[in-house]
Amino acid sequence: MFEDNIYTIIFLALAVFIFLRLRSVLGRRTGRERPPYDPYSARDALRSPAAEKVVTLPTRPAEAASRPTGTAQPPSADRWKGVAETGSAVASGLDAILAADPSFDAEHFITGARAAYEMVVSAFASGDRRQLRDLLAREVYDGFDAHIGQREGRGETLETKFVSIDSSTITAAELRARSAQITVRFVSKLISTTRDRNGAVIDGDAERIADVTDVWTFARDVTSRDPNWKVVGTESG
After folding, report:
1. What does the buried/exposed string (b/e) look like for 171-192 if buried means 16 or more CB atoms within 10 Å of the residue's CB?
2. Confidence of residue 236 (pLDDT cuts 50, 70, 90)
3. Distance from CA of residue 152 to its chain's centroid?
4. Rounded to an integer, what distance in angstroms lies between the CA atom of residue 173 and that of residue 2?
5. CA separation for the pair 233, 227 (Å, rounded)
6. Is pLDDT of 154 > 50?
7. For residue 60, which of 112, 137, 136 has the smallest C-alpha distance?
8. How many CA atoms lie less than 13 Å away from 44 in the CB half-sphere?
9. Which domains does the chain have, with CATH numbers?
10. 44-97 residue pLDDT tens
11. Is residue 217 helix, strand or coil?
12. Which of 25, 154, 157, 208 is 20 to 30 A away from residue 10, measured at CA?
């Protein structure tokens, strides 16, 4: 009986000793502990690199965004002020486009057209077919692609530098079935030089600024969710 009590006391003492040792180690906070694992934080961390590559499209005007789909803004005599003359064919065409697409904003369109014009001209000079394919309709792209291929076959390079876009004027606008088409006349200043495979200038002048006029037509399906316009026609002015 006495021996049983001795062993019991010994086991209790060992248990208390082990408990105190564990508590002294596990119960102590150093301030360097890692936070609990959060699966949502890990998911967001994996998404962040891709999110940085997303290009945010310009939002449409607040007034247009608040209108129900399929409804046009109220008629206004000066709706196209600075863009088209009241009562002109261009104004009538813009009215038709707006009626089909209430989110359409002419000034916003012109800003985008100017950016697209510069990107296309620069991409054509550098032979960037990928960017051209995103901005041009198939038929127009095929023409640009053919010219780039001929240039590459001759070993020539084209260097183009924009100095300015002096004006961008809408000269025609119409709605053909579901296709909105707007023609813009660009007047710009460029420095353009073509060099042969040896680097010698064979066309243009690297020191001369040239005045250039281009007339381009942009189109977009007004029933599409894709907000982008594509170039469907180009000609020199």
Report:
1. eebbbeeebbbbbbebebebbb
2. confident
3. 28
4. 110
5. 19
6. yes
7. 112
8. 4
9. 86-236 (3.10.450.240)
10. 333 333 333 222 333 344 444 444 544 445 456 678 999 999 999 999 999 999
11. strand
12. 25
Give the rounded percent of residues in the chain with a pLDDT score beyond 90. 66
Better-scored residue on pLDDT, 100 or 35: 100
Where does 135-229 show beta strands of DSSP type E?
Answer: 157-176, 179-195, 201-204, 210-221
Pairing state between β 201-204 and 210-221: unpaired
| CA–CA–CA angle 114, 118, 119 (5° rounding) | 115
Q: Which residues pair with 145 in a beta bridge?
A: none
Kindly report the backbone phi and psi dihedral angles of residue 211, in degrees, each rounded to the nearest multiple of 5, phi listed first: -85, 130
Residue given tokens 């077919």 in the structure block: 129
The rounded mean pLDDT for the chain is: 78
Provide the 3-class DSSP secondary structure of residue 56: coil
For residue 223, the SS3 value is coil
Q: From start to end of the chain, where are the E strands?
A: 157-176, 179-195, 201-204, 210-221, 230-236
Q: How far apart are CA 100 and CA 105, in angstroms?
A: 12
Determine contact, residues 91/85, Cβ cutoff 8 Å: yes
Q: Which residues contact 82 (CB under 8 A, 6 or more apart)?
A: 107
Q: Tokens for 73?
A: 């803004």
What's the pLDDT at 79? 87
